Amino acid sequence: MNSRSAASIAARLTAAVALGTTIVLGASGCTFLTHQATTIEYPASDGVNVDATGGPVVVRNALIIATDDGSAGNLVAAFVNEGDETASVSIDVEGRRFTVRVPAKDAVSLGADEDPLLIEGLGVEPGATVEMLFRSGGEEADPVSVPVLDASLPSYADLAPDAE
């Protein structure tokens, strides 16, 4: 084999490697720049999650199932106590305060294990949101917008205030 053939083969090999590298980078380059959607945390249902309650109790999937005119609604949510002692969470909504006690390292599920919390005089129609404050400790907690839904979905039909 002469040196000209060896140089020709080396040039073709270099070109093939360069072309292959360009194709691989071109086909996968977007994944280097884009955030993976599977790493984004979100509530997997219609409600909202609240981690910042100022204490050991966190809120999962909070939503209100209201009457058609929005005059009353049932709060449906799970309260999870991540602490080592029984704790309470206070719920402020539309000028009213409710309290739920949650055993240590346990959960209370309103609408599943226990009756939902009835909010009379709600005044918020389905399709809107209502500002609520969940507080379970001495630290600051921020209000959150909780969705208000109606009972048109079969899974929510027995959670509406009229269905009790």
Automatic annotation (TrEMBL):
Protein name: DNA modification methylase
